Each structure stands twice: as structure tokens, then as C-alpha cells.
């Protein structure tokens, strides 16, 4: 009886062990499936992040190139502005010199006109004196 009872107990134990083994394998497979699914999602997320990072790098490079281009244009415009200011200052200095010369010419012309007016006045006085003398002789 004892051997039969042990066989029966052993059969129950083996059945229980088989069920536990089957349950453990099912749990393991389910857990592995979830982990594989998570790993796949994580891998997709990593790929998406890498693509996004690459796109960001490309955009950054494009912005840096654009910024350098604009910086060059800005420097060029600054040089042009400086050159124009220098030309303007040179022209203004030239015009100030011209104005000074014209003012000097105007003063000289006024002085000459005053001198000619005095000479004319003197000649007119001489003419009037001569006219009076001629009238006296007549």
C-alpha cells in the first residue's frame, strides 16, 4: 500500500510540478514577450530620438551657415557705410574749403568794388570840377 500511496503521491507531485513548470514557463514567456515588446518600443524611441537629433544637428548647421552668411553681409555693409562716411566727410571738407575760398573771393571782390567806387567817386569829383571850370571859361 505504501508503494502505491508513494506512487500516487509521486504522480500528484509530478503533476503539480508539471503544472508549476508550465505556469512558470508561461509566466516567463509572457514576461519575455512584454520585455521584447518594451525593448522594441524603446528601440523605436531611440531611433526616433536619433533621427530627431540628426535633424536638429542639420538645422543647427543650416542656421550656423546662415548666421555666418549674415555676419559677412553685415561686415560688408559696415565697411560700405564706413567708406560712404569717409567719402561724405571728404566731400564736406572739400565743400567747406570751397566755401572758404568763395567767402575770401567775395570779400576781395567787395574790397575791389569799394576801391573802384572810391576811384569812380574821385573821377566824378574831378569831372564835376572840370565841368565847373569849363563852364567858368565859357
From TrEMBL:
Keywords: Coiled coil, Intermediate filament. It holds the Pfam family Filament. GO terms for biological process: intermediate filament organization. Transmembrane segments: none annotated. Residues 67-126 form a coiled coil. Residues 1-138 form the IF rod domain. GO terms for cellular component: cytoplasm; intermediate filament; postsynaptic intermediate filament cytoskeleton. GO terms for molecular function: structural constituent of postsynaptic intermediate filament cytoskeleton. It comes from the Eukaryota. This is AINX protein.
